[in-house]
Amino acid sequence: MPRRPFSGLNPVASLAVGLGLLTLFLPWLLLKPTRISPGVGYAAFELDPLWAGGLLALWLILPWSKGARRGLIAGLGVLAWGGLIAAGADRLLGSAGEFARVSPAGGLWLGIPAFYLAFFAAYREGGWRATWTAPVAGAVLLWVGAFDRLGPAVELGAWRSQFGTELWRHLALFGSALIQAVLIGVPLGILASRGRGFNWVVGVTGFLQTIPSLALFGLLLAPLAWLSRVLSLEAALGILGVGALLARLLRRVGTWAVLVVALPVGLLGMVLMGALLFGLLGPDPLRLAWNAPLSQAGVRGIGAAPAVLALTLYALLPIVAGTRAGLQAVSEDLRQAGRGMGMSPKELLLRVELPLALPLVMEGVRGAAVLTIGITTIAALIGAGGLGFFILRGVEGGAPDLVLLGAVPVILLALLTDLLLRQVGRWLTPKGVR
To answer: How far apart, in whole angstroms, are the C-alpha atoms of residue 341 and residue 81?
Structure first.
């Protein structure tokens, strides 16, 4: 039977080419008289026929290449994509007014998933070595300033000092919540995996995620404002110590007796630890005094304390569920072997069960991290700051470029965090389990 002419084409690369060709017929850039005005769209060949023609040729060549060659062509395509953006912005702004802006349009955005698919096809055929052109092309475009005249870059120039502060605050909120969620979620996942009256843990953490974030912020406002007025740091630490002692003494009475004490004391501990973590990680260090009200430790009705507490509660479910699933997946034969070697329950957990469960635990942490980075944008609504500050300002002022200044870094942070934690999970997983 004769071979069909297109039977050997990579389907992922073919999809990338289809999307890439479609971008050339969509508006790439919007020319707006001012930052809040509606714009007029211009397609690729209207902006610069030379760069558009080069990009068209590369898309047509891409499906007939393989491996490293496909990655090289995709990298050249990224350079042509950036060159078209820079040349088009220069051409449009050259004859426009002083306050004119050029904003990204559908064709420009659609090119990003098209190139992602192209590099993914190259990776499946040639591994990471076939994708080295992606970071190189991106670095070259940033170095030559290919995006400097786009609206979001102009907004960044106007808000540069504020952007650095809000970015650091976003990272501090996210980091404080994730650290606290890991410290609380992993032990809860261990308890949930054992049963013994703790099966409700997954249900409660799942219920917390059903509460809308703004509603949770509102519910926390009044009690935290009250705590900040009536308690000092010294009194709060004393309550935590007494509560921990009572919970330990009540263990023999029953699980529910422990919960009556542990739940309110644990929430107070989460509030205080979250505020202190944010104080350590955030841009404004806290100045603590033992007899000062909790407001000086960062515990207030608005701001970082309710934001970190809410983000921690939202991040618990993936970590608890991942830890529980990982421990329950450990073979009972391995547990019996550990007991046969004379291991205590603690040694069995630390030396056998947790190392084997670590891949699923890290998957839970990775999911919680990506979720938390996104939800942190809402913290700006209660005065906690973060990159959501620019999204809120952009929506209020009808400036889409300012919205992008907050949204695009959040997406990049989520992708980088996902990649980093995926790699950390591989490093921490024992070789025999990979």
So the answer is: 62
250 vs 243: CA distance, rounded Å: 10
Summarize pLDDT for 307-332 with one digit per residue, the tens: 888 999 999 999 999 999 988 888 88
On whether the CB atoms of residues 282 and 174 are closer than 8 A, the answer is no
User: CB-based contacts of 210: which residues, under 8 Å, 6+ apart?
Assistant: none
- The residue among 422, 165, 188 whose CA lies nearest residue 312 is 188
What is the pTM assigned to this prediction? 0.86
Q: Which amino acid is at 29?
A: L
Q: Rg of the chain over CA atoms, in angstroms?
A: 27
Cα-flanking dihedrals φ and ψ of residue 398, to 5°? Answer: 65, 35
Q: Could you give the CA distance from residue 329 to residue 323 in angstroms, rounded to a whole number?
A: 10
H/E segment holding residue 190: helix 160-194
CB atoms within 10 A of CB 322: 25
Cα–Cα distance measured from residue 295 to residue 298, given in angstroms and rounded to the nearest whole number: 5
DSSP conformation class of 232: B
List the beta bridge partners of residue 101: 32
Distance in angstroms (rounded) separating the CA atoms of residues 28 and 150: 12
Query: CA-CA distance, 249 to 247, in Å (whole number)?
Result: 6
